[in-house]
Amino acid sequence: MPPAPTRKTQGVNAVERALTLLDAFVGDGSRGLAELAKATALAKPTALRLLVSLERLGYVVRLSDGRYQLGAKVMQLGATYRSNFRLDQHVLPVLQRLAEATRESAAFHIREKNSRLCLFRVESPQAVRDFQRPAALVALDSTSTGQVLKTAAWPGLDDGRGTLVFASARVYDTQTASVSTAVFGAGQALAGALTVSGPAERFTADVIVSVADELVQAARGLSSVLGAPMPPVSAPPSIQHLSAAA
């Protein structure tokens, strides 16, 4: 059997520049050539050539005043994306990778009024693990998951403190611990909580730091997929340890 083809990691510069131009319209109804060139760090002649191609294909429209705005083709792509979007296709692979990396159970919760709902879960590969059924509705509590869903807010610009991660032990019950952080979506809204959980005795201080690193990477990647423009961070996760009275 011939070997599987390797995935190329080098892209096409012209395509990336054209998509960068489209990105420059986010948050603005229309923009002029000079604005677009400045926003994308492209030379004006380069930006103009790309805009001509994008206009010909319907991705941008040139207005009577010479400014540009997004065209109908972008709206058609957006409608196709929304009609075919399935949250499980994006969340479950993330949970699978988290469970493999941490060897603990990984779950995605959303808030339903004053409760948390486990939408998706991947079990730990270890024989001894915590247990929770997906679709289980639990009152918002002082666990790491509950705190994320009650308090998480859009992080804004890098404040030097790192992404907020909650850690709790023996709060939901006397046997389990969990580490959680927020996942955001379109409009910078909280989409849910990403949680890794397992037997409390396995969640030592070093393990919590390692799990927090994995969680933050996973949550940032998932947030980007869900439409949240995640700001850069320059510090390790900021871990807040919780007690039953939190």
Automatic annotation (TrEMBL):
<keyword id="KW-0805">Transcription regulation</keyword>
<dbReference type="InterPro" id="IPR029016">
    <property type="entry name" value="GAF-like_dom_sf"/>
</dbReference>
<dbReference type="InterPro" id="IPR050707">
    <property type="entry name" value="HTH_MetabolicPath_Reg"/>
</dbReference>
<dbReference type="InterPro" id="IPR014757">
    <property type="entry name" value="Tscrpt_reg_IclR_C"/>
</dbReference>
<feature type="domain" description="IclR-ED">
    <location>
        <begin position="73"/>
        <end position="228"/>
    </location>
</feature>
<dbReference type="InterPro" id="IPR036390">
    <property type="entry name" value="WH_DNA-bd_sf"/>
</dbReference>
<dbReference type="InterPro" id="IPR036388">
    <property type="entry name" value="WH-like_DNA-bd_sf"/>
</dbReference>
<dbReference type="GO" id="GO:0003700">
    <property type="term" value="F:DNA-binding transcription factor activity"/>
</dbReference>
<protein>
    <submittedName>
        <fullName>Helix-turn-helix domain-containing protein</fullName>
    </submittedName>
</protein>
<keyword id="KW-0238">DNA-binding</keyword>
<dbReference type="Pfam" id="PF09339">
    <property type="entry name" value="HTH_IclR"/>
</dbReference>
<dbReference type="GO" id="GO:0045892">
    <property type="term" value="P:negative regulation of DNA-templated transcription"/>
</dbReference>
<keyword id="KW-0804">Transcription</keyword>
<feature type="domain" description="HTH iclR-type">
    <location>
        <begin position="12"/>
        <end position="72"/>
    </location>
</feature>
<dbReference type="InterPro" id="IPR005471">
    <property type="entry name" value="Tscrpt_reg_IclR_N"/>
</dbReference>
<dbReference type="GO" id="GO:0003677">
    <property type="term" value="F:DNA binding"/>
</dbReference>
